[in-house]
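Following up on my earlier message about 6-chloroguanine. Here are the inputs again, as you asked, copied directly from the submission form:
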Amino acid sequence: MRIDVVTLFPGLVRECVSVGVVGRAQKRGLLQVYTWNPRDHTHDPHRTVDATSYGGGPGMVMMIEPLRRTLAAVSGAAAEPAHVVYLSPQGARLTQDKVVALAGLPRITLLCGRYEGVDERVLAHAVDEEVSIGDYVLSGGELAAAVVIDALGRLQEGALNDARSALEDSFSDGLLDCPHYAKPVHDAWGSVPEVLLSGDHAAIARWRRQQALGRTWLRRPDLLAGRDLDAGSQALLDAFRLNHAKASDGEN
Ligand code: 6GU
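Thanks, got it. Here's what our run produced:
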């Protein structure tokens, strides 16, 4: 997959995506990340990319012309047309479903705003969709772009050493992940749950599913709200809730 990033801070984005699984995906040729600085597409000595906002008020707006030229250069750099995503708090909230959909495209362009954002006409004419990474405000789209690249990069075929990791992620089936343990079995901070040492793979799978369901119910009930659980999952969750109620009673 090819990702082009339009940003006033190319170094920030590159640095963020140069390590770990996603850095390795680039070295393996599974993912290409290119950065484009709108300042390189200005024609004035000050390399101006922003101007004051019509109507007044604080903050600057990224102007059309440098972005139009930059996006034209991005378009010309590869054969496939790119799906253009603008990162902003006004966008639709990013979900794992969206991540999976974007990760399947051959090419996307990420447009990062700074200041008060980009001229609205850029959004209308050069952007396919607007994406937010959560309900809070960042000082620019770069960290959000890095989040998107990380989430997409690790899903590229061959990026994860064990493809099961992606399948077992939180959210890959709409649930939070189960707890994980490594050695030692016994520690001053507690012991590994017995079932994980049992070698009974069916029992382990059941326990993990139950933990995933239980944690989702405890921490993110919104994820379960719109969902019909199959009878097996419902039974596991009911048992978890019963246990949880008993354990909380014991505390009082
Ligand atoms: Cl994508 N950009 C900015 N600037 N702030 C954000 C965001 C994006 N998502 C959440 N907050």
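One observation from looking it over: The chain has a mean pLDDT of 96. Hope that helps, and feel free to reply on this thread.
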